[in-house]
Automatic annotation (TrEMBL):
Protein's name according to its UniProt entry: Methylthioribulose-1-phosphate dehydratase
Taxonomic lineage: Bacteria, Pseudomonadati, Pseudomonadota, Gammaproteobacteria, Lysobacterales
Residue positions binding Zn(2+): 102, 104
Domain Class II aldolase/adducin N-terminal per the UniProt entry, residue ranges: 16-204
Keyword vocabulary terms for this entry: Amino-acid biosynthesis, Lyase, Metal-binding, Methionine biosynthesis, Zinc
Family matches, as HAMAP family: Salvage_MtnB
Gene: mtnB
Species for this entry: Lysobacter arseniciresistens ZS79
Catalytic activity: 5-(methylsulfanyl)-D-ribulose 1-phosphate = 5-methylsulfanyl-2,3-dioxopentyl phosphate + H2O
GO MF terms held by the record: methylthioribulose 1-phosphate dehydratase activity; zinc ion binding
SMART domains, A to Z: Aldolase_II
Top-level EC class as recorded in UniProt: lyase
Length: 211
């Protein structure tokens, strides 16, 4: 009999979705050296998230585990991502958030260093801004926040909460670290992640050309 507090078929479904998508992100070089972490909402109290320290390009079903909305492991001895709190804070705060993706691509990491002083990356006038839910024209701008890095997830989560108190956003950079992006489901979170990656690449190229 299944006595788990979540639907194990749903976990299997989520694990497959994470594995398929992360394989593509890893093939693009966005998850170097066991970096990055990924999650999907299972239900209103549980989240499927990657186990800490695994090679994200070679994930198997056993590399996806369940945590509650406080980030505590549920019915498993696995250790969840070291950055679990940065995922669960979004699920706990927004009932509509269904997926959180975190990657360490070269563009994301270089941009986080370059724009750390400004505290944000200004993205304006790009057609691709329409990839972000809520935008319907290129005649708009997004400030992608760049937060100071910390090994203390409570410090990082407090910075994110302070930003979310002020504005609606679909992602942020952490200095010298990488990008967090989210959405209502995997497709939307992937679209946001892909759009941030492309736009950061554009900004870095422009900086090179303007030198
Ligand atoms: C070797 S990468 C350092 C940790 C990190 O930033 C990351 O994204 C992966 O951590 P996890 O515990 O989720 O494997
Ligand atoms: Zn990371």
């Amino acid at each position: 009999m299944d006595t788990l507090p979540y639907d194990s078929r749903q976990l299997k479904h989520c694990a497959g979705d994470i594995i398929r998508n992360v394989r593509e992100l890893a093939a693009a070089g966005w998850t170097p050296a066991t970096s990055s972490n990924f999650s999907l909402r299972l239900d209103d109290r549980h989240v499927a998230i990657t186990v800490s320290g695994r090679d994200k390009g070679r994930l198997v079903e056993d590399d996806i585990m369940v945590v509650d909305l406080q980030g505590q492991p549920v019915a498993t001895s696995h250790r969840p991502s070291a950055e679990t709190l940065l995922h669960t804070q979004l699920y706990a705060r927004f009932a509509e958030v269904g997926c959180v993706l975190h990657t360490h691509s070269l563009n994301q990491t270089v941009a986080s260093r370059l724009f750390a002083g400004a505290g944000h990356v200004h993205l304006e006038g790009y057609e691709l801004l329409k990839a972000f839910t809520g935008n319907s024209t290129h005649e708009t701008a997004i400030e992608l926040p760049v937060l100071p890095n910390s090994q203390d997830m409570h410090t990082l989560a407090a910075q994110v909460d302070a930003l979310l108190d002020q504005r609606c956003m679909w992602g942020y950079l952490i200095d010298g670290h990488g990008l967090y992006a989210w959405g209502r489901d995997m497709a939307e979170a992937r679209r946001h992640l892909d759009a941030f990656e492309f736009l950061l690449g554009c900004e870095l190229e422009l900086r090179k050309l303007q030198r």
